[in-house]
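Morning!

As promised:
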Amino acid sequence: MRRNISFRIIYLRIMTAVILSTFCASFAWAGPDARTLLKESEQRHRTKTQQYAGELTVVNKNGKVRKKGWKSFREGYAGDAKNLIRFIDPPEVKGVGFLSLAKPGGQNPDQWLYLPSMKRERRIATQDRDSSFVGTDFSYEDMEEFDHVKHKVELHGEQLVDNFPCYVIEAFPFEKNGKSVYEKKIIYLRKDNLYLLREDLYRKGEKEPGKRMILSDLQQIGGHWVAQKMEMKDLKKGSTTTVLLKEIIFDKPQPVSRFTLQNLNREGGD
Amino acid sequence: MKKRLEFELLFLFLLLLLLPLSVMAGEISGYAEAKGFAYAERWPGRDNRGLGWGTLFTKWEEMLGETQFTASLRGEGITSGEQQGALDFDPADRRLRRSPVSVRDLWLRIPLNSTHDLQLGRFQLGWGKTDGYSPADAFLPRDLTDPFADEKLPLWALRLNGYSGALRYEAVAVPVTTPWRLPPLGSRNAPVHTRSFPAGTDFNEVASTPPDIGFAAVRLQSTFGDWELGGWGRAGVHPAPILNFRVGLATPTATGFSIPVERRYAREEAVGVELSRILGPWIVRGESAALFSRDRDLGNALIGAVCVEKCFGNGTFLVTVAGNAISPPVDTAQLYDRALLPAVIASWNRTEEWGEWKLVWSAGLKHGDGMLKAEAGYNLTDLWKVTLGGELPYGSEEGPFGAITASRRVHVALRRSW
């Protein structure tokens, strides 16, 4: 009888050890999940406001170079962002303005374009968001920051990007509240600071990425990490738009009227 | 004379405002453009097959604290002396012909508080929702010296605009009438049918003074989700002239008769509504306007316009249908801002890596006339651009486009911007 009890105790201990080790091992194998990483990334890099002067270079597949310049102002971040962009160069697009106002519930933002020649704004339809943004390789959808809430996300291991170990996350737009140009996005988050370094964008029905956004030249400014170089490659067209971010300022209070249609229509204004 | 003196003093005062600011680091932009036109035919006795047009435009923008200051000046030369007036002081574009030098902008925008701006000076307005034809925008004065250019004239005005929540409002007072500028009567751009007048008749355009007072208008706009709604009202002088052919005062000439043509301007009141809605991949815009005038020639109008727009990649397709439910008392061709109605206007434009192109088809549904327009702009560099294009008016000479089939042309332009 005593022998039988000892055997049971040993058996229970072994089973407990097996269950615990299995549980711990499975936890270690899974690592953090994609949603947690993206939430953490947003929490770390969210700023109240951001503004910068962008120097754009658009290089087409034949190597022809065109330069543009804009001023960008943002309040909020990703799913609650308000964004105003005003082109300052070249003369052909000087004064063109773009306003994007996030909408709640994962809906696509409201977007308008102001054209100085018409002296009035034009609304951008949701389905127009694949159009080129003022002759760049960015589309209207690309002008939004990645918002994980609008996507189903899955972690797919790790990979080196620019010699930095990165989490690789696949993101699939939900589309229940607003259609996306893309079927899938692959996000590369730098492991040490959870900063987005690369985004591969797959249009609907395409097996290969149609576009690739690369963020580099990371610096800390005002206590926030920021990529000072942003490249959007159109892999089908063979063209690239590079944005160099200058005069970056974080958390500077923006005027109340900055992100309004009234301001968008202010000719010569920011 | 006294009024003109007041104008000149105001103009000089505004120019003087520029002088102390010239040391500030404002932004200067502009362009120089050389344009050549080749017409399909000569217009006997008046217009050649070729026409040259040179433009020099410069704009100065300056922030004075929170106040925006903008001034721009245009100088130009046209090889056809008939289309260009003398170098004259014409600060409000009230003369029959365009002056070789003109002020296009001269305005200040003063923020009154965080939600209201006051803009005063000379600037251009852009109203309405629909493209191609907008009842809210169409009455604003155009310069038809080049009848295909759709060049809007700036106005001397005072504008107060602001917003409260989703509601935007705007009040505009235009103290001086800037009239529509018409092409020389009898030229290929404004032929007068010989059926109405004996062959050899010419027209002596009398330089009548447009009314001093302009118009006042208010506009409200709001956005509700995918809807944009608006309403407006205006009262004052309708800036498109009504021509009065004084046949009774005709005088004989060596070739026939010379008929004096006077211009008069009617008063008009108008109200309108505008809306736009995103419908899936389409943006639908609509406007309607009720216009009231006791003038015997202008009369009332009930104008509606519907416009649908869809993007295809970097291209935009747009169709507008517009019409007037009330037949005007005179031939619509004489009412410039509504001459084309009823009409359908379709356009297709696209941005390419090398530049952009557009195709426009405008068709008058009453007389079956219309115009095909094509234009392609090639960016040689960020600052140099070549544009090639052509306009092909066709159809019955009773319609506004059919009447100017002698103006069929191609053009090429070279522009250097800075």
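Residues 67 and 306 of chain B are 37 Å apart (CA to CA).

Hope this helps with the figure draft.
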